[in-house]
Amino acid sequence: MPPAADSVLPRNGFKHTKLESNLATIDVGGQLFQTTKQTLNLAGPDSLFSRIAESASAQLAPPFIDRDPELFSILLSLLRTGNLPSKAKSLDLQDLIFESQFYGIETFLMNSLSNPSHFDAFNLEKSLILPLNGRDSPSAIATTPFGSVHVAHGSKITSFDWSLRKKSTILTQFTAVDSMLAMSPRTAAVGATDFSGLQILDLENGFVKETLNWENVTRSGSTVQAIGSSPEFLFTSFESARRNSNSIMIYDLNSLSPVNEIGHYEIYGAEINSAIPATKLNWVSGYGLLMASGSHSGPSGVLGNIKFWDTRSGNVVWEIQEKVDCFSDVTVSDNLSSIFKVGVNTGGMFYADLRSMGAENPWVSLGEAKKVVNGKKEGSGCKIESHGSQVFCSTGGNVELWSEVVLGSKKSSKNGTEEERLFRKNLMGRMKDMGGRKGDAGGTTVAAYQVDFLIVLFLHFALDVPLPD
Q1: How far apart are CA 283 and CA 175, in angstroms?
Q2: Which residues form the At2g24240-like C-terminal beta-propeller domain (predicted)?
Q3: Domains and CATH numbers, the chain
């Protein structure tokens, strides 16, 4: 049987089909590019590429865009393959960002520069040190789901876009910012332990959008001790200006209207335990609980508590009273179902399994047990944070990375509970090798907050965007 008439190849060997109407020709800066409308539509309905696909026609002249053709070719290749071509390395990243914003495909560029396969839990290296204006050390760091980073240093807040190249700095009303939570790329909740009220700041224009206050029975002002959030709510730990009462307020994250109040304590006499406000708030999504932790240094040493709140009922589900080796810093990991702390006296690392809530002494030492030497607080100034299945800790001037070693099978002990879990430590290097410097144990130091910088930068250059809180 002879071939159909419409499938016969012409003499030049190329077949002309009815699919030509799917082709789009674009004139960028005098250079012609040809692609398919399907490729252009991958950019999304709000992009310039999508509008070009709608207007492109074989009967009309190619649409003209007065932009750089070299940059356009890079972005077109990004649409076609989902990755940047190798020749993009010779171009300035900021130029690519501006061009991607013009065409409406910045998200594509952002995702192409984030590759989770580059994240090796035991082979991490410094990515970048963020340049800040002035000599003030960082006191608070916040990230957004869009990859941007906000750093408080002194009375200033410096914001970096997701590429960590473009930055802007605003001056706040605070002498120093102690707590900061990013609510959006341009908005943050900010507080200080010596300035009354929680401020909602416009970080782009540098003005206060709203101030949230809490008053006790004496109607005195209140300072912010900690800020946290869940997908629905904003949590703020307040302490009265006279330091005789404290509370945790819950606000609707969108309207900022008060929803509930938990942990309201009025201090009378020598009730020192109730005088400890929460200085760190972590939402544990896997359990639907709010972890609130705080400590106090007194004549008998450092005391503290860790409470898990049911925010709807206002009840404490689990509480750990810290007396022997209180935490210098504490964090919680949903992935590992555990709390991690650095002991203020020993500087040792400990974990408590959330699946064993109610245990009288839940802490298990990681590594060799450390002893107090000459009464020195080895863990003072240490910081600890978790991301995914890794825990980062700055201790003794070093940065440590702890990961759980997954065993083939888990045996149960005689009392029916699982045996101790195994964690592995990877030493990532001295602080001085990473642009930080170790300062006085009692003050805010670059070393103490360098671990937060490292986590932020690893996430930007090694993990998928969006970033976690």
Answers
A1: 28
A2: 138-415
A3: 23-114 (3.30.710.10), 118-406+419-431+441-462 (2.130.10.10)
Q: Pick the closest to residue 226 from 246, 256, 255 (CA basis).
A: 246
Query: In 3D, which of 22, 40, 105, 102 has the Cα closest to residue 65?
Result: 102
Residue type, 260: N
48-72 confidence digits (pLDDT tens): 998 888 887 766 788 899 999 999 9
pLDDT of 208:
95
- Span 127-169, pLDDT tens digits: 667 788 888 888 898 888 777 889 999 999 999 888 877 789 9
Q: Which residues pair with 340 in a beta bridge?
A: 331, 351
**Residue 418 per-residue DSSP state:** B
CA 54 to CA 48: how far, in whole Å? 10
231: number of Cβ within 10 Å: 7
For residues 101 and 64, is the Cβ–Cβ distance under 8 A?
A: no
Q: What sign does the CA torsion over 323, 366, 353, 388 have? A: positive
Beta strand 149-153 pairing with 138-143: antiparallel
| Cα 161 off chain centre by | 14
Q: Which of 23, 33, 80 is nearest to 56 (CA)?
A: 23
The answer to whether the beta carbons of residues 351 and 342 sit under 8 Å apart is: no
- The CA distance from 293 to 281, in Å, is 7
Phi, psi of 120 (to 5 degrees): -110, 115
Cα distance between residue 177 and residue 379, in whole Å: 23
Residue 458, CA distances (Å) to 84, 370, 384, 424, 452 in order: 20, 30, 15, 19, 10
Estimate the crossing angle of helix 93-103 against helix 48-55, to 10 degrees: 50
